[in-house]
Design a protein that fits this description.
- By secondary structure, the protein is of the alpha/beta class.
- Among the domains are: 283 residues, no CATH class; 77 residues.
- The chain is 26% helix and 23% strand.
- The chain has 17 helices and 35 strands.
- Helix 9 links the parallel strand 11 and strand 12.
- The two termini are 33 Å apart.
């Protein structure tokens, strides 16, 4: 079987083939549609890759459509526009606006993509279906409003009702366009005997909500010709600041952990494929190599803490990683990637091919507490922008260093983080839960012991969601609802208005709980009492969820509410400093930061055992690894199923190792210009090591039984021979 057939790792690249960016993954996503696409596909295929193609579906080089070259008509009226009627641009390119996904634009996309069927590519990735919250003022959107709602367009930021309905329409238009493009082209391919797959690379629901962008998100699960997604989580999204215990700061590791967590619901419970994205650099070119590397390692480990996903996009744009200069700390000039960083990045990228492993226990001192789900709904995207938005509205895409106080407060999204960060910083297993996932797979609730929910920053799309949630509670689940009814969006025209003050009142009714009796002001005597519901428990707390982000005392109050509910449901609670997962021989872990309230510290956590340190550029052997507050680690356990002559870690791709005639022989493939480092289990020092027939540098640790070999990368492979004994 072709070792690349499972497509475990890949990368996207718009540059022509170059041996310096040949990462030797399973597949490559050739980026962009232009006159060079066919040639670029052919060259990457010649290099041995499975070929995917990626292009933007909401923005791209679509000037022939905009300027009348496609059908003779000017289509700038299909560009997304803000209150000032100016097109909303992707980056700063005046020729690349974000598009309203009209039916005409959708037909243009089908025609633009149709030639890919003849190029025999494996898959097409339609990335980033996005509609800015600040948009909705173009002529095209006004027509779509009248068609969808059967009434005259309203300014999206004139009232909360118009704003919410504009968000719903934006999601519908994006979903409609994706559905038609993928369905038509897949049908045409199948009629010609070709099995063309479609994927949607998309930011996380958490990030799009923070950045005030609308996207299909959960709607992707219902599109029959969409085969999965790429969760676009990286330093650029996860370093978006939030507030914990009154401190506004970047929390890259923990934000990434929550982003990857919610992204799992793009495919969880289906047979569709999900890749997690990492990026060693980011779109902000003003940071240092040290900054990039530190935050890359945090997002990398955050993704590994979710063992349900074992496929990865290891990098977008390797050309900017390996061939562009960036700053170094303490220096004014830009320099190419430090050699040890290049080697270390490739070790991570190749090791990710091996992450389809059994999940094991024993990663002490890991938390054994309840599994906590914090609910996030697509509708959170619909109520993020400010009503009364002016012509100078702010947009944030990860590149702005300063916002107004109002913009910064909105970007922080404290309603969600106020519920998620306090128990997470107690070392508890907290994972976001996509509310809409319950509509087609109520079994996702079985992965949780406690669910934390609020409708102060989101709304339930249908009352059926409450039936699913109530059934789970009656079978033994525990739900904590937090909300004081102050959100003005409770008054939007929807299924609960006119019958219930808030949708939470319907949830209480379905649970058989009197919300007025059960809830009360946070901190008040008897407030938020525990109510038995069948074999489970419910608790309603009348509080603004954002309040739990404002001070250590309020964070601790939320933790107490969750802990008491979990304990009532029979789950032990033990505050800790350590979150970790063992995946076969691999251990990924992180220690909560010193700022975490109510947790003893700042002592480091010690991980007992002997390991290969996968984040160390030298792949050092470490015993009883210490991990400090806020730090991460990724280790390979040297005691796990030891086999003589096995590859322990490598910057090069190695598909097989053979031992014949007293020699260990393998072929290592890697990008040109980068030093490969391969660690192997070899009991005794070798008598000689060669690569390509020439002696190379090696080192042996007799105590650990590990041999390290260094050699230069060759994409087509270099034969390494180790003379044993």
């Amino acid at each position: 079987m072709d070792p690349r057939a499972q497509e475990r790792t890949g990368f996207q690249e718009g540059a022509p083939y170059d041996p310096s960016i040949d990462l030797r993954t399973d597949f490559v996503m050739v980026y962009g549609l232009n006159d060079t696409t066919r040639q670029r596909i052919a060259r990457w295929r010649e290099a041995g890759y499975r070929i995917h193609v990626m292009t933007g579906i909401s923005w791209g080089q679509y000037q022939d459509y905009l300027n009348g070259g496609w059908d003779g008509e000017d289509h700038w009226g299909d560009a997304q526009a803000g209150p000032d009627q100016a097109p909303l641009l992707h980056g700063r390119n005046p020729e690349v606006p974000y598009m309203v996904p009209t039916l005409t634009f959708t037909e243009y996309l089908i025609e633009k993509l149709r030639p890919l069927i003849d190029l025999d590519v494996e898959a097409v990735h339609l990335e980033e279906p996005e509609f800015w919250d600040s948009g909705g003022y173009s002529d095209a959107f006004k027509r779509e409003w009248q068609s969808f709602y059967g009434e005259a367009w309203e300014p999206p930021h004139g009232t909360v009702d118009a704003h919410f309905r504009a968000g719903r329409l934006k999601q519908h238009l994006l979903t409609r366009s994706l559905d038609r493009v993928t369905t038509v082209l897949r049908d045409e391919a199948l009629r010609r005997g070709k099995d063309l797959r479609f994927y949607v690379p998309t930011h996380s629901l958490l990030n799009y909500t923070q950045w005030q962008i609308i996207s299909p998100e959960s709607r992707l699960r219902a599109l029959p010709a969409v085969h999965g997604a790429v969760a676009q989580v990286w330093t650029g999204t996860s370093r978006t600041p939030n507030v914990y215990a009154g401190v506004h700061a970047e929390r890259t590791l923990w934000t990434a952990y929550l982003e990857y967590g919610i992204s799992q619901d793009l495919t969880r419970g289906t047979d569709r494929i999900l890749w997690f994205l990492h990026d060693p650099i980011e779109d902000h070119a003003g940071r240092t190599w040290e900054d990039y590397r530190s935050n890359y390692q945090r997002t990398l480990v955050a993704s590994l803490l979710h063992p349900g996903v074992a496929r990865f996009e290891v990098a977008p744009w390797p050309n900017r990683i390996f061939n562009r200069p960036y700053l170094r700390e303490g220096r004014a000039e830009r320099v190419p990637i430090p050699p040890e960083y290049a080697t270390s990045y490739l070790v991570a990228m190749q090791t990710l091919r091996d992450m389809d492993q059994p999940v094991l226990g024993g990663a002490e001192p890991a938390s054994s507490g309840p599994r906590i789900g914090v609910v996030l709904s697509d509708t959170a995207m619909f109520q993020r922008g400010a009503v009364g938005l002016g012509e100078n509205s702010e947009r944030y895409d990860g590149l702005q260093d300063a916002l107004s106080d109002e913009g910064r407060a909105r970007l922080s999204f404290s309603g969600f983080y106020g519920l998620a960060l306090p128990p997470l910083f107690q070392g508890q297993r907290v994972t976001p839960l996509q509310l809409e996932a319950l509509l087609d797979n109520t079994a996702v609730l079985d992965d949780f012991d406690v669910v934390v929910l609020s409708y102060e920053f989101q709304k339930p799309a249908t009352p059926a969601l409450h039936l699913a949630l109530a059934g789970w509670v009656r079978r033994g689940g525990a739900v904590l609802y937090v909300g004081d009814g102050s959100d003005p969006y409770h008054a939007v025209r929807d299924w609960w208005t006119g019958r219930y003050p808030t949708p939470a009142h319907h949830l209480a009714e379905v649970l058989g709980v009197s919300i007025d009796d059960a809830a009360g002001a946070a901190g008040a005597a008897g407030a938020g009492r525990l109510v038995p519901v069948g074999a489970g428990w419910a608790r309603f707390v009348a509080a603004d969820p954002a309040s739990y982000s404002r001070s250590p005392a309020q964070a601790a109050e939320l933790v107490d509410q969750v802990r008491e509910l979990a304990e009532a449901a029979g789950h032990q609670w033990s505050a800790g400093r350590w979150l970790s997962v063992r995946r076969g021989p691999y251990l990924a872990g992180a220690v909560v930061p010193e700022e975490a309230a109510g947790v003893a510290g700042p002592e480091p956590v010690t991980v007992a055992g002997t390991y290969l340190d996968l984040l160390d550029p030298d792949l050092a052997v470490v015993t009883d690894k210490e991990v400090g507050p806020g730090q991460v680690t990724w280790l390979r356990d040297l005691a796990y199923e030891p086999q003589e002559h096995q590859v322990l870690a490598s910057a090069a791709r190695i598909d097989a190792v053979n031992v014949t005639g007293g020699e260990l022989v393998f072929t290592g493939e890697g990008p040109a210009g980068v030093t490969m480092l391969t660690a192997l289990r070899v009991a005794a020092p070798p008598s000689a090591v060669t690569a390509g027939g020439e002696p190379v540098e090696w080192r042996h640790d007799p105590g650990a039984g590990v041999l390290w070999v260094r050699y230069e990368g060759v994409p087509t492979g270099v034969e390494v021979r180790v003379r044993l004994g």
